[in-house]
Amino acid sequence: MEAGGQFLETMTKLPISVSMVSGAEASRIGRALASVADWASEIVVVLNEEARDGTEEIALQYGARVFRAGREMARKRISRSIQPVS
Questions:
Q1: pLDDT digits over 10-61, tens only?
Q2: In what order do the strands lie in the sheet with 14-22?
Q3: By mean pLDDT, which of 5-9, 38-42, 64-68 is the weakest?
Q4: Do the Cβ atoms of 14 and 39 come closer than 8 Å?
Q5: What is the pTM of this model?
Q6: Which of 46, 16, 35, 80 is nearest to 55 (CA)?
Q7: Which of 50, 86, 80, 45 is nearest to 66 (CA)?
Q8: Phi, psi dihedrals of residue 64, rounded to the nearest 5°
Q9: How far apart are CA 49 and CA 1, in angstroms?
Q10: CA nearest 64: which of 42, 35, 31, 83?
Q11: Which ranges in the chain belong to alpha helices (H)?
């Protein structure tokens, strides 16, 4: 196993929130969430109200908090999901 892979296996989650705004992206969102799930302590996905292709279910499988909103509400949700810096 390469050194980079060992590092990821032993790394604890960082105090970082990852926020994504998404539409109907079931074919791609899994790869995006997999790339952050091991190290981000929080994942927030804001879906547009029309997305009904399984994107929400995939996000939930990665432990994401999922919200549905129109575009303006999506921006507000993301700004509220940011964790305070200590």
A1: 568 899 999 998 889 999 999 999 999 999 999 999 998 888 999 999 999 9
A2: 14-22, 40-47, 65-68
A3: 5-9
A4: yes
A5: 0.69
A6: 46
A7: 45
A8: -75, 145
A9: 43
A10: 42
A11: 3-10, 29-37, 55-61, 71-81
Token pair 């804001």: residue: 46
Considering Cα of 20, then 31, then 23, then 46, what sign does the dihedral take?
Answer: negative
> Residue 29's CB: how many other CB atoms inside 10 A?
24
Q: How far apart are the first and last CA of the chain?
A: 35
pLDDT attached to residue 10: 58
Domains detected in the chain: 3-81 (3.40.50.1100)
Model pLDDT, residue 58:
96
Helix (H, G, I), strand (E, B) or coil at 25: coil
In single-letter form, the type of residue at position 13 comes to: K
